[in-house]
Amino acid sequence: MSIDSLVQIESKNKESSDYFRISDSFVVWLYRKNRLEKSLSTLLKLIENTPPSDKRVLEQRRFQSSTIYRRSGNYNASILTLKSIIKEKNYDGYYLKALYRIADDYNEIGDYQTSMIYYNLSEIELHNICDYDKLIKNTIYSTYTYNKISGETARSEIERKLLIADSLSIHYTPSTRNLYRLNLVLGNFYTAYENRNIQKGEPYLLKAIDLAKKIKDSSFIAQAYMSYGTILDIESPEKSIHNLEEALKYVDQNDYNQRSVIYANLGLNQARLGNYDQSIKSQVKAIELALNESLQYLDNKEIYNLLSIEKSTFNLKTTLSNLAETYYLRYLKSKNKIDLNTSIQFFKYSDRIIDNYFNSDVSIQSKLLWREQAALIYSRAIRSCFTANDLESAFLFMEKSKALLLYEERANLKELQSSNIPDFILKKRRLWKSQINRLERSTAIQIDSLKKTIVLQDSLDWIHKEIIKSNLYPKDSLTTNFSFYTIAGTQKSLNKDEAILTYHISADNGFGLAPNTETGYGILIMSKEKLIFEINDLSILKDLSNSFLKKLRVKQQTTIDFKEFQNVSISLYDKIIPEQIRTHLKDKHLTIIPDRYLNTLPFEALVTSPVEQPVQYLIEDNEIHYLFSVAFNKLNREKAHTPTTTDNLNAFAPVRFQNMPSLENSEREIEMIDNHINSTLFSGTNASTTNFINTVDKSKILHLATHASSDNDDPWIQFSDDKIYLDQLSALPNNASLVVLSACETTTGEIAAGEGILSLARGFFHGGTQGTLSSLWKVDDKATYQLMDAFYEHLSKGKTKSSALREAKLTYLATHSGSELSPYYWSSFILTGAIDPVPLSNNNWRYYVLCSIIITVVISVMLSRKRNKN
Question: 178: closest CA among 139, 151, 147?
Fold first, then answer.
């Protein structure tokens, strides 16, 4: 009689101890035979029939089901199961195991930020109960997540964790397996390119090999040899290959993932030795092992379909991009165009994996980390596109390297607003998302904030699932359709007097096969023409940009000061607007899509005339405005929902503040605006956060004349009673045609690789604004007043936003002299987003009232004369 038959017989008596005993054994037997689906279905029936009072057994079986889910690749189901265990918080049961297993699950789905939260919570809990062996194990596993995150903060956190583990291993002897893991992870820390130190890492890895052999675990031996081979890959590729081949001798032939990583590293070393043909074979084998599929007879579409979220891994993304670089290097040797086109295609495959993770349900901070990973690929991909003169693919990568997270958030918001979801649910969702983002940005590791983050995430997950279950909101991802990222489509939207200039500034870390740290690119798009150009010596460009900005932020008081500024500005102009594109730009309405540190520069202030001639600025030749990307602008304009704006303009000026200087001219500034546009003014104590929140979604124009700061990781705007922070601002819906931030440095902030500046101005776009007018440095009160006066005068007459701003700046240049002509005074404010006129209503009410009075007086006089004549 089969075990299956015994289970069916005993299942008729659900309370029989034999039923549970046989079923548990059957589950384990099926699991070992790799019959996962049957094993899981049997276990789930077993859980269903387990009495709720038998909490320990129920918890054990749930934990067991998470193991099967994990092995099946269903990490999300594993996470849900583990969360049910964590809620019970049974320290004698599976609570602590569930904490670091759920952290590993989040790591597997690419949600590194949430993974770190659970690892840190587990670390605190284990430390509190003095379970040092498990604490060492938890510390070791957590470094696998941190190793996938670039940056100094991650490296510091890895170092902190490793010092804890190393210290504990001296005072509390860990198990041999944990001692092996500790030596391996210490060696891997010095294997990472950013920390590469063979002298420090080699002893740990040799010790790990020795311990693995003592344990007699072939997978441990293979892993140790692989890590040892990796640390040698730059200094000694031949020795690296020898150790990787040793790893292949020990690895389980059914362990496709580990074999894939070994072959990928073999290919990397073969490429370093110039053996590109063999390198390509090894890397293709690595990809086929990861996908469990041969690529030989698959077309591009079939490969794209294979690169699903279930098969996507961090290592596969890296292997695909390394293979793309190998094809590029082989092209440089062979000059075979097929190699170049294949390089571009494999960069696109690698990017597909990033899309998969980015589009999955992970935290905002984790998505920012994935944008960093994308940024490392794009500069090398665009180089291949430039070499092949493939402008469409180059434009695709350029567009995807800018503000994709903003695009996704805005797309989600618009879809939600057009659904039937009640408004109070949307408000809760926005609030919780902003609170989670704020907590995740905090560097402090405190148990209360970690637990609060987890509770908020669970609440957000619940809302998301309920929305999908109710069919009020489509489950499909909103960011996978990139069909509009084309130059041809963009050209159709341009008039003959318009041009778009988009940039890519490399965020390459300088590691890998073929780094591209010193070359950037630009694409000029016009209605009938397009061209791509290189920007060489990026380190010089960065120095010029910093020097230009530094000189803009101060007043040029003397002729020498101005000449120094002029020389820097001309050099920068030559770099970013080279001779080959200048003739195309004359008298064009110019849209700038900057990248990285170029986001901090006002192109209007670039000096276009030679040193010996009178100064001419770019603003004098071109009307200029800025975009995050073509795609975001298209989305923001096309998907706008029915506006609820009823007020022409709401202006806020707190004037006086605690612990900050007063802005005495700000009240006069908003009163001046009221002379041009019928406005509602909130000054003094009325300029409160409450009044702002109550009016933000009713305003066609929002004008904020107050203090603001972007100097730290948490940008804010000051009102009379409190600050509003960037994350809170992003959660506030608005329908404004224009937001004017007449405050200091409202366009600056943290530059996130692949996303741009996380500025206060950007926060308003999250909520739905069509355009912002914001500042790049601390502005002069008097000059700001004059610029705003002229800007609103032109805006009230129906001019476009960009035309009104240009006229205001040109008026300032025409009416000032001497040191007051310094760009410090007039070039700080830049316009981002849609440029069309603001649809003001009844703006000429004063004119109509005056006309009515005059007409009434004239009629009265005429009637009076008529009566007198009679």
Answer: 139
d(CA 351, CA 117): 27
- 622 within 8 A of 588, measured Cβ to Cβ: yes
CA gap 324, 284 in Å, rounded: 11
> Can you tell me whether residue 793 is helix, strand or coil?
helix
Which residue in the block uniquely carries the two structure tokens 């996938």? 148
Q: Which element (helix H / strand E) includes 500?
A: strand 498-504
Q: Which two tokens stand for residue 841?
A: 């209503």
CA torsion sign, 218 to 219 to 223 to 229? positive
Specify the residue for token string 């079939």: 302
CA distance 695 to 427: 15
Closest CA to 117 of 846, 275, 125, 590: 125
Cα 850-854-856 angle, rounded to 5 deg = 115
Coil, strand, or helix at residue 188?
helix
- 550-566 pLDDT, tens per residue? 999 988 878 888 899 99
CA–CA gap between residue 154 and residue 163 (Å, rounded): 14
Angle (CA) 393-395-396 rounded to 5° is 60
Those residues with Cβ within 8 angstroms of residue 99's Cβ, 6 or more apart along the chain or in another chain: 86, 118, 121, 122, 125
Cβ proximity of 575 and 544 under 8 Å: yes
Burial class (CB in 10 A: 0-12, 13-18, 19+), 680: middle
Contact 494, 526 (CB under 8 A): yes
**Helices (H), strands (E): how many in the chain?**
37, 16
Give whole-number Cα distances, 725 to 346, 717, 722, 732, in Å: 41, 7, 10, 11
Euclidean distance between CA atoms 553 and 104, whole angstroms: 47
pLDDT digits (tens, 9 = 90+) for 326-361: 999 999 999 999 999 999 999 999 988 888 877 766
Closest to 741 in 3D by CA, of 774, 697, 786: 774
Question: Which two three-digit tokens encode residue 106?
Answer: 């989040």
The secondary structure of residue 779, as a DSSP letter, is: P
Nearest to 209 by CA among 173, 190, 184: 184
Q: State whether residue 701 is helix, strand or coil.
A: strand
pLDDT tens for 694-731 read: 898 888 999 999 888 776 667 888 999 998 888 788 77
Using alpha carbons, select from 34, 35, 53, 38 the residue that is nearest to residue 7.
38
CA distance linking residue 348 with residue 814, whole number of Å: 50
Question: What residues does 600 pair with on adjacent strands?
Answer: none
* Other Cβ atoms within 10 Å of 359 Cβ, number: 18
Cα–Cα nearest to 738, from 717, 758, 765, 776: 765
Selection from 799, 809, 800 nearest residue 830 by Cα:
809
The answer, yes or no, to whether residue 758 has pLDDT greater than 70, is no
Q: What DSSP state is assigned to residue 778?
A: P
End-to-end Cα, the chain, rounded Å = 126
Q: 757-770 b/e with 16+ CB inside 10 Å = b? A: bbbbbbbbbbbbbb
pLDDT digits (tens, 9 = 90+) for 179-216: 898 899 889 888 888 888 999 999 999 999 999 999 99
**Amino acid making up residue 81:** T
The dihedral region occupied by 110, where left means phi > 0, alpha psi between -120 and 50, and beta the remainder, is left
- Give long-range contacts, CB 8 A cutoff, 24+ apart: 191-198: 191/227, 191/230, 191/231, 192/147, 193/509, 193/511, 193/512, 194/150, 194/155, 194/509, 194/511, 195/155, 196/231, 196/234, 198/231, 198/232, 198/235
